[in-house]
Amino acid sequence: MLERAKSLDAADPLAKFRERFDVPGGVIYLDGNSLGCLPRATPARLEQVVREEWGRDLIRSWNSADWINLPQRVGAKIAPLIGAQPHEVIACDSVSVNLYKLISAALRMRPGRKVVLSEAGNFPTDVYMIEGLEQQGLAERRLSDRGDLLEALDEDVALLLLTHAHYKTGEVFDMEAITRAAHDKGALVLWDLSHSGGALPVDLNARNADFAVGCGYKYFNGGPGAPAYAFVAERHHSDAQQPLSGWMGHATPFAFSDDYTPAPGVDRLLCGTPGILGLAAMEVGVDLIAEIGIEPLHSKSQKLSEFFRQCLLESGLDLELVSPIDPAQRGSQLSFRHEDAYAICQALIARGVIGDFRDPDILRFGFAPAYLRFEDMAEAARHLAEVLETEEWQRKEFRERAAVT
Ligand SMILES: Cc1ncc(COP(=O)(O)O)c(C=O)c1O
Ligand SMILES: Nc1c(O)cccc1C(=O)C[C@H](N)C(=O)O
User: For the complex shown, is ipTM > 0.90?
Assistant: First the structure.
């Protein structure tokens, strides 16, 4: 398989982009769906922001370096990558905080309805944020199994909140059909794009989506704790009111008035002063993904995951796949179920193959198409086969749980 991998790499139109990332030697990184790799241009850009814009120009940089518009500028660059208009997206805060803002805004837009419907087993923060609003008496949380979601949609539902590509299994929802079904019941829809933005084609406006949020530190390679992004469809710009009425979301923050007037459009999603270092790093990652293009990234992602699967099959491994077998139905990942998934994951990490474990029994491999090679797939599959054949994962040191998994 290694020979075949090398010929696929030689013919890969995206191969040249690998050197634009600082991929550490001796590592096969299959966790770009948790924390993306460092773009090579990021340290120099951060050095410039720190030394020149902050160190030398100090407060003048809010104007001279246009820091004040950085959340909008980064949002506008993400917009075409998720099927939105530039003025519909803003980069700020974390996904969790943006969920709070948008769930609250949606509830205000559907007076008389309190139910926020989501999938049982959705990424925890999504369901926790609904729970928090429920504890404040503002929402009623309803969780339903994936297959029962449409049945659970009724006229009490104010908002349907779903993750487009599931964080554990990678299974992708049909955004158009589900959004339509929710709208038919008078509900709004908020899509969490954390595992699809920057890796899969997302067409928010063509699917008539209302709201979306997504992660900056995964496929957009914005760095640890990078700002997230949030989308509000233009038709909701005057109605969507979020509760974190901080001064940066004011129509005229520098008028310093006693009363809050929300800024027009997505600018009102801002709360406090944006983190400029995080946004500057994020912009480098977004620029790079935009330069490569979502369609080529998606096409390569499907080929990588299929090749990985083929390599596993060739080595005779019979692992239980929990991701959809059809690449069109899944995000840029493959997940397998094994009762010793944690120890297997640790044994692989010791060999330099970094995937991740998701409690209780999922071994997850993310395929960031911007910097991975087919050769990495062949090698990772070989290591996985060896770890399982030799039962190397049985070693005691691979069974001790770390704080962050
Ligand atoms: C689907 C999903 N939503 C939200 C998050 C977390 O968002 P944040 O840490 O930015 O609040 C993640 C991963 O961390 C995720 O996978
Ligand atoms: N954000 C993370 C973190 O701060 C530490 C460890 C992992 C993460 C993640 O991003 C987890 C990720 N969203 C997931 O899909 O599992």
Answer: yes
Average of pLDDT values for 349-357? 97
Q: How far is CA 101 from CA 75, 126, 240, 273, in A?
A: 17, 12, 9, 16
Q: What's the gap in Å between 238 CA and the centre of ligand 2? A: 33
Residue-wise burial string across 244-260, b where 16 or more C-beta atoms lie within 10 A, e elsewhere: beebbbbeebeeeeeee
The tens digit of pLDDT for each residue in 96-136 reads 999 999 999 999 999 999 999 999 999 999 999 999 999 99
Query: Nearest bound ligand to CA 166?
Result: 1
Q: Could you check whether 2-30+293-398 and 43-291 share the same CATH topology?
A: no
Q: What is the pLDDT of residues 177-230, one digit of tens each?
A: 999 999 999 999 999 999 999 999 999 999 999 999 999 999 999 999 999 999
Torsion of CA 115, 207, 119, 320, to 10 degrees: 180
3-class secondary structure, 224: coil
* Secondary-structure percent of the chain, ordered helix, strand, coil, rounded to 5: 45, 15, 40
Indicate the class that CATH gives domain 43-291: alpha beta
Residue 231, phi then psi, degrees to nearest 5:
-120, 135
Which residues are within 8 A (CB) of 221 and not within 5 positions of it... i.e. 6 or more apart?
21, 32, 36, 37, 38, 39, 198, 284, 285, 288, 289, 370
Catalytically active residues, by annotation: 123, 192, 217-218, 364
**Cα of 109 to ligand 2 centre, how many Å?**
31
- Its sign, for the CA torsion 344, 347, 349, 351, is negative
CB of 404 closer than 6 angstroms to any ligand 2 atom: yes
| Binding site membership of 10 for ligand 2 (Cβ less than 6 Å) | no
Q: Indicate if the alpha-carbon torsion angle 221, 226, 232, 238 is positive or negative.
A: negative
CA distances from 239 to 18, 188, 263 (A): 43, 13, 12
Domain boundaries, the chain: 2-30+293-398, 43-291
d(C-alpha 253, C-alpha 249), whole Å: 7
DSSP 8-class letter at 344: H
Q: What span, in angstroms and rounded, lies between the C-alpha atoms of 58 and 180?
A: 49
Q: Which residues contact 347 (CB under 8 A, 6 or more apart)?
A: 387, 392, 393, 395, 398
Which residues make up each annotated binding site for pyridoxal 5'-phosphate? 96, 123-126, 163, 192, 195, 217, 247, 273
Question: Quick one: fold of 2-30+293-398?
Answer: Aspartate Aminotransferase, domain 1 (3.90.1150)
